Amino acid sequence: MSSTYGKTKMHHVGSIPDRLQLIAQQVDKSIQDPWTKEKAVAIITMDGTIPWTHGGFSEAEEIGRVFWYTKNNIGYVGDPSGIDYYPQARRTEQLGGEDCDGHTIYLSSILGSLGYTTGAKVVSADGNSWHIYNLTGLSTKHNPSEVIPLDTTQKPSVPGWEPPVYYQKHVYVATFDKGKAWWKKLK
User: Fold this and answer.
1) CB atoms within 10 A of CB 14
2) pTM confidence score
3) What are the CA-CA distances from residue 28 to residues 107, 122, 135, 169, 181 (Å)?
4) How far apart are CA 74 and CA 96, in angstroms?
């Protein structure tokens, strides 16, 4: 399928682990695109503040800036019935909207380009309808001791917010690294 933004490749995926692997591949491709690093720097310096020294912004401040930029500038737009798109970060920015997996790819790509360890949490109340959101490592980017959930698709969300426990009867978590999703089913 072609558009003014280039070609879209259709992927046939079934299981949650298969979807997580495809998302990890899209995150890796996005991180390798120089546009992503350029966009990440533009987001964290948007107010004119430049971190001229090593460690200029706190991790929480950088993550917060990326979260709020995404929540305020990338709308929630569902995919067509029976089709899941998994766009790279640049494509999501061009379109200005995506569903929860597109938001997860976007956040993981932007934050990953800044050196953060990223991943995702996939939750479901019934095992049929699934929701995914970003997880980002905090308290040292490369060896996180804390993980902060980032769900930019839900109205009440702020950094650290997660869907209510009722929606977490079925849970997968994953870490994205070099195009691979290292996943685990928690329940």
Assistant:
1) 7
2) 0.89
3) 12, 19, 16, 29, 10
4) 5
| Cα–Cα dist 24/49, whole Å | 31
Domains with residue ranges and CATH for the chain: 15-185 (3.10.620.30)
- In terms of Cα–Cα distance, which of 86, 93, 91 is closest to 66? 93
Q: What is the largest CA-CA distance in the chain?
A: 48
Q: What pLDDT, on a 0 to 100 scale, did the predictor assign at position 130?
A: 92
Per-chain mean pLDDT for the chain: 88
How are beta strands 118-124 and 97-98 bridged, if at all?
unpaired
> Up-side HSE of residue 1: CA atoms within 13 Å toward CB?
5
Nearest CA to 93 among 112, 106, 78, 77? 106
Angle between helices 59-73 and 100-113 (to 10 degrees): 140
* Residue 104, Cβ density class (10 Å: 0-12 exposed, 13-18 middle, ≥19 buried): buried
Give the pLDDT mean for 142-151.
Answer: 82
